[in-house]
Model the fold of this input.
Amino acid sequence: MFFLSLLWLLIGLLIGGLTWMARCSPPSWRRFVWLRMLVLGAVVALAAGWLGVLLAGHFFATALALWVTVFCMVVLPRGTRWLHMHLHIKKV
Done:
């Protein structure tokens, strides 16, 4: 399981780096965007991998981690931008 966890972290770092190069981060993340995308990818991949082990077993966990990470890396940064725009309290 240790090697699977390392594999999921590597997958998350790779996908985080790819989404950073594709400029999928919100404009509100001004500082350390590359680090935030890498950490977000690694955390999501590790969580998705362990959840995949619990739900689908060892065989399908890596594929599940890959696809959940790709989906979350596209949706989560844009979701934070949407929340920031719609829930931002405007000063009068």
